[in-house]
Amino acid sequence: MAASTTKTRIRNERIAKYLDSLKFALYCTTHPLDGFWDLTHEKRGTMAAAHTILIAAVLLRIFKLKYTSFLFVRVYWEDLNIFLYIASILFPLALWVIGNWALTTLFDGKGRLYQVYMGTCYGMTPYVVVQLPLMLISHGFTVDEAEFYAVVSAISLVYSAVLIVVAMGQIHEYSMGKNLLFTVFTLFAMLVMVFILMLFFSMISQGIAYFISLGRELLFRM
Question: What pTM does this model have?
């Protein structure tokens, strides 16, 4: 009985911590400097909440294709590959996290890989908070109000990007100038990684094509 009570208490404490860390994302949105410092240095954030925000952002991107008014989003479903669409969201995120962590590790960055990921996910909170109601009320907009939709949508994206940059500065304990510099370096590193990956897969495909042609030649001669 005592063991069961202890397990229940521990589970309740974990749920409470998860909900508190998820609610803390809103605090980071309105108080980015203090919020992102406390996120990692004071252990106010959790990976579970970061995963939740990321999953919410990805699902929201998908739902927007179907539930946003056709005045703002037109989808040709026959040409849409949902898996590639999801990858187009997660792949740049992975490049950003890995690139930022790899560079800052070489230049006295204090953040760890999971902290960079967590700060990035928490920085996406405005996108989720704004885009969800915007999607729902988009059917009430007219063509003349399209500019309002576009501006609010752009603000959510820009503000999320700003929060992610601020989060990196607080996590790595960089000054504003150094943080902006490494933001540019990270974007450049992302391009380099894309180039390397494209080169790698190109070499792999050429190697596979070579062995396939070689096998066909052998079969032909036999």
Answer: 0.85
